[in-house]
Specification:
alpha/beta; TIM Barrel; 12 helices; oxidoreductase activity; NADP_OxRdtase_dom; oxidoreductase; AKR_Detox_Biosynth
């Protein structure tokens, strides 16, 4: 497995991130992490709301400094307390201290805002995160499940006020759910952010798990078309469907770092095989065309205008874009 820089930082992170939300057995957790590390993986993703995940990691991770540990806050710690959730300073401070105790560590490599909180000013969140970075309890920060305009505003404020900016964005992304291509992915690329993507297998639909974890009766025609296309490409390349589905997400942008979950060692061994799979261009095109997707307005409209002489003159098609 190769490594990439996390956003515009010097932190080296592996091409695939290990998601720990579904691991519920400490012994199996240790084996999964060992198999992931043996393949070169070094990023562990968890959250304060993932049940016993943080505590389990705190118990089984022996070589703590060899791993990049990311956890999240926002979700409620106490349903009866209105201040036990949200992105405000009080919840951040208390959630972070709780996570540090559970993880048995003095610092978190990446601290993620778990979801946008409409009631907390973004200035308060960014300043509180920066204070925690300056205190040495957090090394880098990221944001999950938020609109592109919120993230853009947050990072612009950070730039203006010399606060720590978001280096990472976490979003769902797979062949069946490409919404992030409209605004979030271009925004992240423009800010130089890494994008850790969850659900690359669409809850098992794209991995061939139908009948085991996915009820066939619940599948739509769109689901079936995507699964069939993934299976066809996998058969042609002699690899597993899960590897094709994960590799597809990586093919769309160098910023993408898929989160691969596993509850058994065999699953993580299969999934990390996607790191060595580079899909041919024709395979990517075949997968793209298997299910309908449109950027919609303004993406499609702008793309049409870029080659229109009425908009950009007679030389509209002679301008080469700056390489990204």
């Amino acid at each position: 497995m190769r490594y990439r820089l996390f956003g515009r930082t010097g932190l080296r992170v592996s091409e695939l991130v290990l998601g720990t939300m579904v691991i519920d057995d400490a012994r199996e957790c240790r084996r999964i992490i060992d198999a992931y590390a043996d393949a070169g993986g070094n990023v562990l993703d968890t959250a304060s709301a993932y049940g016993e995940s943080e505590s389990m990691l705190g118990t089984v991770v022996d070589r703590r400094d060899r791993f990049i540990i990311g956890t999240k806050y926002t979700l409620s710690r106490d349903a009866a307390d209105p201040n036990a959730s949200g992105n405000h300073r009080k919840n951040l401070v208390l959630s972070l201290e709780q996570s540090l105790r559970r993880l048995r560590t003095d610092y978190v490599d990446i601290y993620w805002v778990h979801i946008w909180d409409r009631h907390t000013p973004v200035e308060e969140t960014m300043r509180a995160l920066d204070d925690a970075v300056r205190a040495g309890k957090i090394l880098h920060i990221g944001v999950s499940d938020a609109p592109a305009w919120v993230v853009s505003r947050a990072n612009t404020l950070a730039q203006w006020r010399d606060w720590t900016p978001f280096a990472g964005l976490q979003v769902p992304y797979n062949l069946l759910n490409r919404d992030v291509e409209r605004e979030l992915l271009p925004m992240a690329e423009a800010f130089g952010m890494s994008v850790t993507t969850w659900a690359p297998l669409a809850a098992g639909v794209l991995s061939g798990a139908v009948g085991r974890r996915v009820d066939p009766a619940a599948l739509t025609e769109r689901d079936r078309a995507a699964a069939a296309a993934v299976r066809k490409v996998a058969d042609e390349l002699g690899v597993r469907p899960a590897q094709v589905a994960i590799a597809w997400t990586r093919s769309k942008s160098p910023a993408v770092l898929p989160i691969v979950g596993a509850s058994r060692v065999a699953q993580i061994v299969e999934n990390v095989g996607a790191a060595d799979l580079v899909l041919p261009a024709e395979a990517v095109e075949e997968l793209d065309s298997a299910v309908e997707f449109r950027l919609g307005f303004p993406g499609d409209f702008i793309a049409e205008c870029e080659t229109n002489p009425f908009v950009f003159g007679d030389n509209a098609t002679k301008v080469d874009a700056w390489p990204s």
